Amino acid sequence: MRTILLAVFMAIFATSAFSQTLKPGDTLSITVLQDPKLDRTVVVDPLGEIAFPLAGHIRARGLTPLALENVLRAKLKPNYKDDALDVTVALANAPKDIPEEDLKPKIFITGEVLRPGPYVIRQPTRLMQAISLAGGLGPYAAKKRIQVRRRAPGGDETIFVFNYRAYEAGEDLEGNVALRAGDVIMVPERGFFD
Fold first, then answer.
1. Residue 189 pairs with which residues in a beta bridge?
2. CA-CA distance, 143 to 168, in Å (whole number)?
3. b/e map of 19-40 (b: 16 or more CB within 10 Å)?
């Protein structure tokens, strides 16, 4: 009797785990039988995507692990001669293990600012406000070459170049772009001729 109850319980658990839809913060274990070098653990990012070699960025939010297996199989198939490409996606853990703070929308500021790092954005924020949050520009900042890098859901990256000196003079007001979650602000170090 115990064996039957255990088998029924395992079947229900396996069905519910496979039918669960993926969400940001979920950790997935992905295995490609034909190419063990691709085996890895990935986390669904705040945009609901994963990045996987040879497949690029893939929207995972809302898919079940089985549906994601099918998407990965279709994207990887052109790279392999074997028609029976075997891809397995397993949900390793859900975001309950990730602190709530890590799931909030963030921008990232790096380079020549006084306090580089990730910053949570709770309201519309512009580039100059973000630089201010990071304590302002450092003494060696290249003020004419500040970049905002934004990755689109399809994987394409857009780069906005901001000239802080022109903004100070009231000339480049358009460069003070509105930021989105995931944007990376790069303040490079000043070169010899900057």
1. 141
2. 10
3. eeebebbbbbebebeebeebee
